[in-house]
Amino acid sequence: MSRVFNFSAGPAVLPEAVLERARDELLDWHGSGMSVMEMSHRGKDFTAIAAKAEADLRRLLDVPDHYRVLFVQGGASQQFAMVPLNLLPPGASADYLDTGTWSVKAIEEASRLGRAHVVASSQPTRYTTIPPRADWQLDPEAAYVHYTPNETIVGVEFLEVPEVGDKPLVADMSSTILSRPIDVSKFGLIYAGAQKNIGPAGLTLVIVREDLLGHARRDCPTMLDYTVFAQHDSMYNTPPTFGWYLAGLIFEWLLEQGGLPAMAERNARKAGKLYAYIDASGFYRNPVDPACRSWMNVPFRLADETLDKTFLAEAAAAGLTSLAGHRIVGGMRASLYNAMPEAGVDALISFMRDFVQRRG
Amino acid sequence: MSRVFNFSAGPAVLPEAVLERARDELLDWHGSGMSVMEMSHRGKDFTAIAAKAEADLRRLLDVPDHYRVLFVQGGASQQFAMVPLNLLPPGASADYLDTGTWSVKAIEEASRLGRAHVVASSQPTRYTTIPPRADWQLDPEAAYVHYTPNETIVGVEFLEVPEVGDKPLVADMSSTILSRPIDVSKFGLIYAGAQKNIGPAGLTLVIVREDLLGHARRDCPTMLDYTVFAQHDSMYNTPPTFGWYLAGLIFEWLLEQGGLPAMAERNARKAGKLYAYIDASGFYRNPVDPACRSWMNVPFRLADETLDKTFLAEAAAAGLTSLAGHRIVGGMRASLYNAMPEAGVDALISFMRDFVQRRG
């Protein structure tokens, strides 16, 4: 079978050129006689791979010098605990914005380790909006402000970085990082699980302002302490070397594509044409406020939901896979991460149009 | 360049047949049109891969039904914290045996989270022995007994499982798991970083007796709670899917090789011939008590240590790589994990013999 168009929300499609290179190097990286997976993480080959990945990421995101880039494990779910363990002193409170399922998980974990104050919630609109900044009840004593710039399940995304004064702004960018340029200097800490726009599952990226290091709780496990990662260049223990290498190949590929301005243009075009077709179709619908529709995750429903299974089966037969919506909301979802080619979106729209004609 | 013989202590050599299969499947797993890396962890393809890996591991180790197998992240270093967070109630004490650097790290981390009582230490012999069981000062109130069956740096290994009565025995098997049959029922909990005998770095295996679940501390981060992993079949969040898949390929390969009895025979022969040559050489030496020499990690020193760099350079030129000892002890170290073919050991001995004739 040839490659399909894979609309999975994550783990997600990777650039074919990157997979081909990984395949060609899998048994013998650059004449070393071994796979990257077999290399000591402390040897000169792997440390060069690791350093180049970080340098390319810094170039892509224009990361200021007073920010550290960390390569950790455990996914965003582990970050939900690491953020308060490192930034929330015992007895203090942090501000959290609730814009969906992932926000709620971050709030629940912070609440187990300290106090999480919800500044606003879009739950009353079933998370199809973003609470206006003017309505947020910020706590002047909060240690930081946490939000989720993109929520994968309902498909809402902040198009701008919210202004929160001098509080450290903490963002779970798992499903939006590298999809467009961002101003890193507006953030105290950014984290992102790799399995959408960075690389394979099992790697998590953290970008943290240096002044926020050194404040972990006394009983914080060593492997959850950002400072330990910063002091050891993310090699206190053996890092996920193959994931780090693949992330580096993705970063190189992104630079070759023209970097994040080029990706933003492509992503806006991809999402724009799909939303435009959905809105005009008279058969499909997306309930999200157009002011905060996600570029990365486009959920939609069929006018006749008894056709959902038929839609998914016929789409899969046409090489368009993983289009089922998250089990919490049902319906359909097309995730359009960086590695989804525009041809995939065109093929999806064409299939959707054809499906309406045959079944609508 | 062709493949080298890679004696790295970890990340380490993987079976060439496994790498070839991973390469061939990298862009299209079994006609799915996608890489395993691109699959949703909740889809039927990946859940089948995951379940088969666990089933094969259970077959290899003959894991009893009342033990759970967990696939986690963070390496053994994270287990150093997870073990006390899950098994050591606040205020209680656990027993630790000190047989080297990795034992010390486990003890230090447990001491940050509770009380760790050192029952015996081989530090006075520079960790070249194992303290006789009769000399261990076990605490009758200890929550569990922790030891390190194989220490990679000095190269000491327990040839038998110590008897500790009815206390849960906890073992860091990172560098010995799957090298020989073990009786899992003698343990409360076994953990192992993958990057020696299991697969690529970034995956950690935990085998835990069911009655030890459900006792995590109230403030234990969700992602450090064994019970959460057990309740969600290690998919509370996105697991390291590609590492899990590769581990499954390794388990299949081990079964094809004849399972752990066959590996034990091969590993005993590989290590045996290298130790025999070292002892007889009059030029190389290994300081470890022959009663506890590691099958997996064989450190040795040259009679003339000014030749160390020459030895390493000439070995690398001959396709024998990563033979430098750990930076703490210097000298040389040949790690002979399952994937190191006997031909690699033969080539090393032949090189060592030739080196003595030319330079000794």
Automatic annotation (TrEMBL), chains A, B:
Modified residues (N6-(pyridoxal phosphate)lysine): K196
Listed pathway(s): Amino-acid biosynthesis; L-serine biosynthesis; L-serine from 3-phospho-D-glycerate: step 2/3; Cofactor biosynthesis; pyridoxine 5'-phosphate biosynthesis; pyridoxine 5'-phosphate from D-erythrose 4-phosphate: step 3/5
Keyword Protease: no
Highest taxon of source: Bacteria
Subcellular location(s) of the protein: Cytoplasm
UniProt binding sites for pyridoxal 5'-phosphate: A76, S77, W102, T152, D172, Q195, N237, T238
Gene Ontology CC, one term: cytoplasm
Main EC class the enzyme belongs to: transferase
Transmembrane segments: none
Keywords, alphabetical: Amino-acid biosynthesis, Aminotransferase, Cytoplasm, Pyridoxal phosphate, Pyridoxine biosynthesis, Serine biosynthesis, Transferase
Domain Aminotransferase class V per the UniProt entry, residue ranges: 4-348
Catalyzed reactions: 4-(phosphooxy)-L-threonine + 2-oxoglutarate = (R)-3-hydroxy-2-oxo-4-phosphooxybutanoate + L-glutamate; O-phospho-L-serine + 2-oxoglutarate = 3-phosphooxypyruvate + L-glutamate
Chain residues that bind L-glutamate: R42
Predominant location: cytoplasm
Pfam assignment, any one: Aminotran_5
GO molecular function: O-phospho-L-serine:2-oxoglutarate aminotransferase activity; pyridoxal phosphate binding
EC number(s) on file: 2.6.1.52
Cofactor binding notes: Binds 1 pyridoxal phosphate per subunit.
InterPro entries recorded: Aminotrans_V_dom, Aminotrans_V_PyrdxlP_BS, Pser_aminoTfrase, PyrdxlP-dep_Trfase, PyrdxlP-dep_Trfase_major, PyrdxlP-dep_Trfase_small
KW Transferase (keyword) present: yes
UniProt-listed GO biological process terms: L-serine biosynthetic process; pyridoxine biosynthetic process
Family classification: Belongs to the class-V pyridoxal-phosphate-dependent aminotransferase family. SerC subfamily.
PANTHER family in the record: PHOSPHOSERINE AMINOTRANSFERASE
Described purpose of this protein according to its UniProt entry: Catalyzes the reversible conversion of 3-phosphohydroxypyruvate to phosphoserine and of 3-hydroxy-2-oxo-4-phosphonooxybutanoate to phosphohydroxythreonine.
Protein name stated in the entry: Phosphoserine aminotransferase
